[in-house]
Amino acid sequence: MALPLTAAHRRSIVIAFTTVLIVCYFMTIGREDNYTFSKTLSAQWSIHEDPVVVSDVKQTNETPSKLSSSSKSKPSPFLGNVIPQVSPPPHRANASLVMLARNTDLNGVISSVEQLEARFNRKFNYPWVFLNDEPFTTDFKRRVSVLTDADVSFGLIPRENWVQPDWIDEGRAQEGRNKLVRQGVIYGGSVSYRNMCRFNSGFFFRHELLTPYKWYWRVEPDVRYYCDMDYDPFLFMEDHDKVYGFTISMPEWEPTIPSLWSTVKDFIAEHPQYVSPDNSMDFLSDNAGDSYNMCHFWSNFEIADMDFWRSEAYTKFFEYLENTGGFYYERWGDAPVHSIAAALFTRKDQIHFFKDIGKLWSCRLVFVADPFAGYKHAEFAHCPQGKQWREGHCSCDPNDNFDFAQNSCLRHFMRLQD
């Protein structure tokens, strides 16, 4: 026989039933909200993954004041009711990837950016700065910007930093160009090439798009990157008190810089205070500085501290070289200029050989020793060896390596360590 329900029993049943209804209601609302949020999240992923949309919203700024300081990040997918955790942005150096290019270099620019993004920058998201002596086209900006999630800036080089100065004796400069053409030296007759060398030697780090940055990685069009980079070379340089980093070193063509070393020695004699006591003169000279052995770090790849180029020592050095007119009367390149300054004005332990960065450059070269050879397509490759080749998942042939080729200067650098 059923027991009679008391008032207390009835209240308990009502409370329990009400509680169940409330729980069911909020579970239903939660599922609906979760679904709505998932749809929003899915839409966000679609926006990020659609290259057309990215190209429309990508920053293509012309001035540093418009640079975004916030890093872009994609939302993280999640399962069930687990709330996604947003990881703090990784520590980065104050650095930029820099490329000097023209609109006609577009295909080579795309190739280089695509590879460096895949091998390195997709993980670290460093900003890109592109510089040109002419305005970049809309198509160039659109097609380059879509390749990266990082900030991208396009800058115009001021005319006074690019063109041959008015005080240069054009007759003398023309005579110097004609002489190199007769000798078969590549770019011997090019004024534009000399403009580029002078700009890279003394002005690029002063450009308004680069003044906010301390470090730079110089990137060239049509360069292949062979290996993955799972560490940040900028932070490595910063943490180990480095100033200049390279991958390939070779001799300069002597006919292009006949008076450069004598000018350097004159500068040193007048400004001995700028020379580091623990310098790398033995990389530059086989006789304690009496003559130049032509060795330099190939500046097509550089990771370096722009504050060094902005320092009093280098500023005075460049101005001294500039006043001689050697960039135009001869064909002084930015590679020997940078190399000589880094070797003399820093400690030898502040120059770093990036033996784990695999790269290949393609260029046309003229071999002066063989007047019948003319221009030749040549490739210079640095391929990591052993463990670094394996861990970097390098696609290069480790046997195809310029490091210790006959005309490589790496031996001169290695003896500094000895």
Annotation, overall tally of beta strands: 12
- SSE pattern: HHEHEHEHHEEHEEHHEEHHHHEEEHH
Output the number of helix runs.
15
Helix proportion range:
40-55%
Q: Strand portion, in percent? A: 5-15%
Largest sheet entry: 7 strands, mixed
Identify the strand order in the major beta sheet: 3-2-1-4-9-6-10
Shape: globular
Mean pLDDT: 80
> Quaternary arrangement of the chains shown?
single chain
Return residue spans where pLDDT drops below 50 for at least 5 consecutive residues: 25-88, 359-378
Pairing-aware structural class of the strands and helices? alpha/beta
Termini separation comes to 103 Å
What is Rg?
Answer: 29 Å
Describe the structure.
The protein has about 425 residues and is an alpha/beta fold. The protein is built from 15 helices and 12 strands. The protein has helices at about 5-50, 50-55, 105-125, 140-145, 170-180, 190-200, 235-240, 260-270, 280-285, 305-310, 310-320, 325-330, 335-345, 385-390, 410-415; strands spanning about 95-100, 130, 150-155, 215-220, 225, 245, 250, 295, 300-305, 350-355, 360-365, 375-380. Strands 3-2-1-4-9-6-10 form a 7-stranded mixed β-sheet. A 3-stranded antiparallel β-sheet has the order 5-11-12. The protein has a two-stranded antiparallel sheet with strand order 7-8. α6 (about 190-200) packs parallel to α13 (about 335-345). The radius of gyration is 29 Å and the shape is globular.
